[in-house]
Amino acid sequence: MADAKAHTVIGSSVPRLEDAALLTGQGRYVDDIRLPGMLHAAFVRSPHAHAAIRGIDKSGALALAGVRSVLTLEDLRPWLRNERLVVGLPSPSYRQERNRPALAGTEVVHVGEPVAIVIADDRYLAEDAVARVAVDYEPLPAVADCRAALAPGAAPVHSDAPHNLLAEFAMGYGDVDGAFTAAPHVFRESLWLHRGGGHSIECRGTVAVHDPLEDKLTLWSSTQMPHALLRVLVDMLGRDESRLRVVSPDLGGGFGPKLVSYSEDVVTCLAALVTGRPVKWIEDRREHFISATQERDQYWEVEIAVDADARILGVRGSFIHDHGAYTARGVNLGTNSAETVTLPYEVPAYRMSVRLALTNKVPVTPVRGAGHPQGTFAMERLLDRVARELALDRAEVRRRNLIPAARMPYTKQLKTRGGMQVVLDSGDYPRCQAQACERAGWDGFRARQEAARREGRHIGIGLANFVKGTGRGPFEGVTVRVGPSGRILVYSGATAMGQSTRTMLAQVVAEQLGGDLSNITVTTGDTDGIPLGIGGSNSRQTVTAGSSAHLAARKVRQKAIKVASLLLKASEQDLEIVGGEVRVRGAPDMKIGLGRVAHAVAGTPGYTLPGEVEPGMEATEYFVVDEMAYANGSAVAEVEVDVETGGVRILRYVIAHDCGRILHPAIVDGQIFGGAAHGIGNALYEWMGFDDDAQPVTTNLGEYLLVTATEMPPVEIIHLESPSPLNPLGVKGVGECGVVPAPAAIVSAVEDALAPFGVRLAQAPVSPAQLYALIAGARAGIRAR
Amino acid sequence: MKPPPFSYHDPRTVADAVALLGRVENAKLLAGGQSLMPMLNMRYVQPDHVIDLNGIAGLAGVREAGDALEIGALTRQRDLEFSGLVRRRCPLMHEAILQVGHRQTRNRGTLGGSLCHLDPAAELVAVAAALDATVGVAGPGGRRELPFAAFPAGYMTPALAPDEMVTDVRFPLWPAGHGHAFVEFSRRHGDFAVVSAAALLEADRSGRITRVSLTIGGAGPAPFRARDVERALVGSAGSAPLFHEACESLRSIDATGDVHAPASYRQQLAVTLASRALKKAHSRISA
Amino acid sequence: MAETRKIALTVNGRRHEVEVETRYTLADFLRQQLGLTGTHLGCEQGVCGACTVLLDGQSARSCLMLAVQAHGHEITTVEGLAPSSTGLHPLQEAFRDHYGLQCGFCTPGVLLTLVEFLRDNPDPTEQEVRVALSGNLCRCTGYAGIVAAALDAAKRLQGGARG
Question: Which residues pair with A633 in a beta bridge?
Answer without folding.
Answer: A466, A657
